[in-house]
Amino acid sequence: MADITEASRILRTYAGHTMSTALALLAGGLLSCQAVIWLKPLSPNLSLIEQFAVHLASLAAIGMALALMLRRWVHMAVLAALAVSLAWPVLAAYRPAAAVEGRGIKIVMANLWFAAPTHQRTIDFLMTSDADIVGLVEVSGSWQQVLAPLFAKYPHRVDCFATVPECETILLSKLPIATPRAERVLGGAPVVVGGEVDWNGRRFEVLATHLAWPFTPDHDQRWRVDADAAPTLEGRLPASRQASQAENLASFLNTLPPDLVVMGDFNGAPWSRLQSAFSDATGLENAAGWELSWPTMLPGPLRLPIDHVLARGHLVVTEFSAGPELDSDHLPVVAEIGWRD
After folding, report:
1. pTM, entire model
2. Is domain 105-339 annotated with CATH 3.60.10.10?
3. Per-domain residue ranges for the chain?
4. For the segment 18-27, what is each residue's pLDDT rounded down to a tens digit?
């Protein structure tokens, strides 16, 4: 019996040391990630860490709970501090939704996915969504062929498939579109598609776009239309193709009237340095929140919010939600846009 008791004590001691070591390693790894975020590296690959702030903060919170259960007070304190510091960019990026009166405009934005093996679930969803405006990106040749049923329901549409070789974006609308545009931003990238719509006598611009992946480097800023001009986006940003495209887009959008809606796959979380700088520079924001939209093959909590509908001026996003899983690796996002005086 004494041998069994001693073996049990040794096992508990070993388990306790193992858990303490695991918690220490977790804290060390999270602290390294936090240090990278604080240092704001130019490297696109290192900058990817900030996209996962919610995931990292959740890991820290789980570790804190385990440390509390094991009464590892130092570990608990360190992990609690890390949970707060990692979550802070997310909390700081949050803006409360503004209250508006009357019915708004319903917008659906979806990345259809070039590699989608099927199409019908997406077509069915879009046909029954009752959206006023639909923005679609990654519209491949096969997708263009199957979108025809939508054209009767959405008599106004803008695309650049025939004029811009890399164009994969289309805007469909029940509302008339004046002065349609489908072009490369400032002659460069990204492409924007849309135009001015008339909503009960209120006119505003609505555009759809698609930014590049965040990990493609652009250290010489060759993707910027005018690399010598003073930057529109402020702060120390990643030296990436995406950042150069966002700079082009922000410079272009700031030439447009103040009442504006921009939707698309931005390939970035709203709390990232680049998205925060883009929002600050353009005044575009989503006051209703974000949705974990990509990739659908992962469980919901592991996804990232990279599909957005943003508004400025008299326009405000009052409701925002994710649609059902379709034929894509992205969830569609559904927004209601209101008008504030």
Report:
1. 0.91
2. yes
3. 2-93, 105-339
4. 888 899 999 9
